[in-house]
Automatic annotation (TrEMBL):
<keyword id="KW-0479">Metal-binding</keyword>
<comment type="similarity">
    <text>Belongs to the iron/ascorbate-dependent oxidoreductase family.</text>
</comment>
<protein>
    <recommendedName>
        <fullName>Fe2OG dioxygenase domain-containing protein</fullName>
    </recommendedName>
</protein>
<keyword id="KW-0408">Iron</keyword>
<dbReference type="InterPro" id="IPR044861">
    <property type="entry name" value="IPNS-like_FE2OG_OXY"/>
</dbReference>
<dbReference type="InterPro" id="IPR050231">
    <property type="entry name" value="Iron_ascorbate_oxido_reductase"/>
</dbReference>
<dbReference type="InterPro" id="IPR026992">
    <property type="entry name" value="DIOX_N"/>
</dbReference>
<feature type="domain" description="Fe2OG dioxygenase">
    <location>
        <begin position="179"/>
        <end position="288"/>
    </location>
</feature>
<keyword id="KW-0560">Oxidoreductase</keyword>
<dbReference type="Pfam" id="PF14226">
    <property type="entry name" value="DIOX_N"/>
</dbReference>
<dbReference type="Pfam" id="PF03171">
    <property type="entry name" value="2OG-FeII_Oxy"/>
</dbReference>
<dbReference type="InterPro" id="IPR005123">
    <property type="entry name" value="Oxoglu/Fe-dep_dioxygenase_dom"/>
</dbReference>
<dbReference type="InterPro" id="IPR027443">
    <property type="entry name" value="IPNS-like_sf"/>
</dbReference>
Length: 356
């Protein structure tokens, strides 16, 4: 449990009620539960390695319910600040920069977010006083995600790919190195039901992959997040209070030559009994260091499978920072209506993938 208590702590946060819609309407994906604490046990890593090729929840995450609720309280309060105050900390998504505040743009883009980058010198920047008052607690929360969730999973993926060095990925995700890792507070603003159905097919965020290494999503009981199953249909993700949902993202797919697949996911309008209020999200995006090249690792497993030289069609080497900034900038153009299609090149000959 965190020991931080600022003079003006946020008011308590209460989770929305679980949906009471019948499961025939809200069909959940069958996710694997991965208890990373087992890595400390004999043969634990080998046992867990058998699970990582499925969708995973991470149990034993080491965060108290109180800590997670406090972060959601901050998330809630950030978006209740006056709009002009929020805009003082705007990020420049047109240039591929997600640090700071992004407001919703139009009926197509109904998402607000505030991204707090990792606490390294190159990311020194102003924040609202609300954030500054709790900055030590936010830093502690972020660092423990990096150290206690990300690093064990990176060692597990190194094991899966049969790398000699279990810290191969760890050494490419050093917290102190330059990189675009951050904690995100996020808020979805519901559209009117008729508009949502007629103009957007009740989809709030279209199907996509993330462009980092792993994405950590903390408990949120509003039934809205969906994953695309290997068979094709979309299924809801059940969010458990004792688990963190983990998405594999593009960087890990590139590192594995396509062996480890990015999680394709989207956000849709919640069931009627949850659709009358905004949906908050608490997310951590773990990314490789800025200068790390996104190419397959020297893996015995990939060599046996003939996947060791697959680079997803890149015409030249691309770094993690170049990939992230290009994806952010391209998504910006679609969100604000500068382009009508999400299709087209992102960088180095690789195009946006569509999943709707």
């Amino acid at each position: 449990m965190s020991s931080f208590r600022a003079a003006e702590s946020p008011a308590p946060y209460e989770y929305p009620q679980e949906t009471r819609e019948k499961c025939v309407k809200v069909q959940y994906a069958n996710l694997e539960a991965l208890d990373i604490s087992k890595m400390e046990q004999p043969e634990g890593t080998a046992a867990l390695a058998k699970q990582v090729l499925s969708f995973i929840n991470t149990n034993g995450h080491g965060f108290s319910d109180e800590e997670i609720r406090r972060q959601y309280a901050l998330c809630r309060d950030v978006f209740e600040l006056p709009l002009e105050e929020r805009r003082r900390f705007a990020c420049d998504t047109a240039k591929g920069d997600f640090r700071g505040y992004k407001e919703r743009a139009n009926d197509r883009d109904i998402v607000e977010m505030y991204n707090i980058p990792k606490f390294t010198p190159e990311h020194s920047r102003p924040h609202p006083q609300l954030i500054l008052d709790q900055l030590d607690e936010i830093k502690d929360f972020s660092l423990r995600i990096h150290n206690n969730l990300l690093l064990p999973l990176l060692r597990l993926f190194a094991y899966v790919l049969e790398l000699d060095d279990e810290d191969f990925f760890v050494q490419r995700h050093r917290y102190e190195a330059e990189g675009l890792e951050y904690l995100r507070y996020m808020k979805y603003h519901p559209r009117p039901a008729a508009t949502d159905a007629a103009e957007f097919g009740n989809v709030w965020t279209p199907g996509h992959s993330d462009y980092n290494t792993l994405t950590f999503l903390f408990h949120q009981p509003v039934a809205s997040l969906q994953v695309q199953t290997p068979e094709g249909p979309w299924r809801y993700v059940r969010s458990r209070p004792d688990a963190v949902v983990v998405n594999i993202a593009d960087a890990l797919e590139f590192f594995s030559g396509g062996y480890l697949k990015s999680t394709i996911h989207r956000v849709v309008r919640p069931p009627p009994d949850q659709a009358d209020r905004p949906r908050l999200s608490l997310i951590y995006f773990a990314r490789p260091e800025a200068k790390v090249t996104l190419k397959p690792v020297a893996s015995p497993l990939l060599r046996r499978l003939g996947m060791h030289d697959q680079t997803e069609g890149f015409t030249h080497e691309v770094t993690a920072e170049e990939w992230a900034r290009a994806r952010i900038a391209k998504d910006h153009k679609f969100r604000v209506g500068e382009v009508k299609s999400r299709e087209g090149e992102i960088i180095a000959g690789v195009s946006q993938k569509l999943y709707d």
